[in-house]
Write a structure and sequence with these properties.
A 5-stranded mixed beta sheet has the order 2-1-3-12-6, sandwiched between helices. Strands 8-9-7-10 form a 4-stranded mixed beta sheet. The chain folds into 2 domains: 7-162 and 330-402, Periplasmic binding protein-like II (D-Maltodextrin-Binding Protein, domain 2, 3-Layer(aba) Sandwich), CATH 3.40.190.10; 164-327 and 407-446, D-Maltodextrin-Binding Protein, domain 2, CATH 3.40.190. 45% of the residues lie in helices and 13% in strands. A hairpin with a 2-residue loop joins β4 and β5 (153-154). By secondary structure, it is α/β, with parallel strands linked by helices. The longest helix is centred in the C-terminal third of the chain and has 19 residues, at 428-446. Keywords: Signal, Transport. It holds the Pfam family SBP_bac_1. Residues 1-23 form the signal peptide. This is Extracellular solute-binding protein family 1.
Length: 447
């Protein structure tokens, strides 16, 4: 799958930006990011340097082709494109940031990874060019844009989209007497009992590396805790995690794990669990939209599955106090170096990369969803992926993966706690006490 589990990534980011890394929103370091000149260049000449983490041969050619196409359209411009893998990128960007030698454009994961650059004044404020009221911004999914918002300003250019959905086997649901997707979290738990009676494992769940549980908790936190409270708690300098909605979210996750999944999930990989869904033994599987292709004939799924699956967003609990329209997921994106002498040219290149033609090509060539509205068509993708894009565009905001939106130590506390909830060795209250204690240490170090 495309999204790398980012607990280790976040740990690498802790040392990334010692300056301003723990600053609160609105810190003066972030305001220095507004210094870049982003006015459209009258003459397009010079060199643009770019670093991505898309060295994988499945992805790299797309970015190479975009760079060549931009050079062809602008003969006076040279695009210096460097592409490295996930771990080399983490190491490289840490060194470049520390030495203040960032390229003109550089990749960033959404969440606190990006926010560290913003707080350190190393990301240009792009509000004037890609804010939601700008011509460019209006071509983008609002939820994708909002993911790179910090203190009311916009710092990132989303390049792809990924979101979490519950895939379900329509034939299995029919056999269990279920007419369609559950309307509430409580209905989902009830449906699990009916699916068990029909001899299905209700939900295929493999939590060997911890992050699959984190994805459930990400969504349930968004449902049970008010957005402003989440924002405060996910910010390292102000996080407390005392809202009772956090315990509710963990309680709901534990109910789902014990009611709907098989025992021993902590020893089962996500991919192994997914295979039980693809082979028709499980009725549901919580997966990312970038994984949808494995459920198609082209992706190798048997016809019995490829012709009989749909999906729904994990439903909200009744009376939840949070945002029922938030959707777990996030785009990847690019940031612009505010000290770049070619910042305006860098913005022009990113506009080119995210125009309708290149966005459609990304969907066709790589199979990712693009944040550019209208980029997924009948000719370049399949129905479920287009439907996923509609749901993403209809979301109020992304509930960014818990293991990237929070401080790395908080994420690790959640990670170990979630494993304890799955095997029954910990209670929701015990997990939250550990998270709260970790958050307190981080606040004290920030102060």
């Amino acid at each position: 799958m495309k999204r790398t589990p980012i607990i280790a990534l976040a740990c690498a980011a802790v040392g990334l930006l010692a300056i301003g890394a723990c600053g609160a929103p609105g810190a003066s370091s972030a305001s220095s990011s507004a210094s870049a000149n982003l006015a459209s260049p009258t003459t397009k000449t010079g060199t643009i340097s770019i670093i991505t983490k898309f060295a994988d041969p499945r992805y790299a050619p797309y970015f190479v082709n975009v760079a060549k196409a931009y050079e062809k359209a602008n003969p006076g411009v040279k695009v210096d494109l460097q592409q490295v893998g996930d771990q080399p990128y983490k190491d490289k960007i840490r060194v470049l940031a520390s030495s203040k030698q960032l390229p003109d454009i550089y990749f960033s994961w959404a969440g606190d990874f990006t926010n560290k650059f913003v707080r350190a004044g190393l990301a240009a404020d792009l509000t004037s060019v890609i804010g939601p009221d700008t011509e460019w911004g209006k071509t983008m999914s609002p939820a994708a844009l909002k993911t790179f918002q910090y203190d009311g300003k916009y710092y990132g250019v989303p390049i792809d989209l990924d979101a979490k959905f519950m895939a379900y086997n329509t034939a299995a649901f029919a056999k269990a007497g279920l007419s369609g997707a559950p309307a509430s979290f409580e209905d989902l738990l009830s449906d699990c009992a009916k699916l068990k009676n029909a001899d299905y494992t209700p939900i295929a769940f493999g939590n060997q590396y911890g992050w699959p549980a984190i994805h459930y908790i990400t969504q349930l936190n968004a449902y049970n805790v008010a957005p402003d409270t989440l924002s405060k708690d996910y910010t390292p300098a102000t996080g407390e995690f005392t809202d009772p909605g956090y315990v509710k979210a963990l309680t709901q996750f534990q109910q789902l794990a014990h009611t709907c999944t098989t025992k021993g999930a902590n020893g089962l990989s996500h991919e192994s669990a997914q295979a039980t869904f693809i082979n028709g033994k499980s009725a549901m599987h919580y997966l990312e939209s970038v994984e949808f292709s494995v459920l198609t004939k082209q992706g190798g799924a048997p016809a019995s599955t490829a012709n009989s699956w749909s999906f729904f967003q994990l439903p909200a609990p009744s009376g939840a106090a949070g945002d029922a329209k938030a959707l777990t997921g996030a785009p990847d994106g690019f940031l612009v170096n505010p000290q770049s002498k070619n910042a305006a040219l860098a913005v022009d290149f990113l506009k080119f990369m995210t125009n309708q033609q290149n966005a459609q090509q990304l969907v066709k060539q790589i199979g990712w969803l693009s944040p550019v509205q209208g980029s997924a068509t009948e000719s370049n993708t399949f129905p479920q992926l287009r439907q996923a894009l509609d749901k993403i565009n209809g979301a109020s905001q992304f509930a960014v993966w818990l293991d990237t939106v929070t401080n790395a130590d908080v994420a690790n506390a959640y990670l170990s706690g979630a494993e304890g909830l799955v095997d029954g060795s910990q209670t929701p209250e015990q997990v939250m006490k550990a998270v709260q204690a970790t958050a307190k240490k981080i606040r004290n170090s920030a102060g």
